[in-house]
Amino acid sequence: MKIHHIAIICSDYEVSKKFYTEILGLSILQEVYRKERQSYKLDLGIGEEYVIELFSFPNPPDRPSRPEACGLRHLAFSVENVHNKREELIGKGLKCEDIRIDEFTGKEFFFTQDPDELPLEFYQM
Question: What is residue 36's three-state secondary structure?
């Protein structure tokens, strides 16, 4: 039917919460602290559409997350204007790759990363 959500475990909850809400502009739908797991669970949306669960856990192990590593390659967001989004994110202090062209669709896109180096793609719609 559709993807329900994407779950991300972060190394620093407050840093990642600020990144996804203040830098990327996702909305907080719900935030809970699970005392028995020493874990926050933050439900984030694009508007009111639930898209990401952001988790904190004590001492999570590292996982390779480079674009060509086995496993999750990247998380992609569609945007109305790739050039404007790139300039906005650079203005907020992010390092963004140059804009590239998808050889199959002809659409523009670029990559940046979240605080835990999860690759994030912004794709022209």
Answer: helix
Confirm if 83 and 124 have CB atoms less than 8 A apart: no
Confidence of residue 112 (pLDDT cuts 50, 70, 90): very high
How confident is the model at residue 13, as a pLDDT? 95
pLDDT at 77: 95
Calpha distance 31→62 (Å, rounded): 24
Q: Which residues contact residue 16 at a Cβ distance below 8 angstroms, ignoring those fewer than 6 apart? A: 8, 10, 54, 56, 114, 115, 116
Question: Is 44 exposed, middle or buried (CB count within 10 Å of its CB: 0-12, 13-18, 19+)?
Answer: buried
Q: What domains are there in the chain, each with its CATH number? A: 1-59 (3.10.180.10), 66-125 (3.10.180.10)
CA angle 109, 6, 106 (to 5 degrees): 20
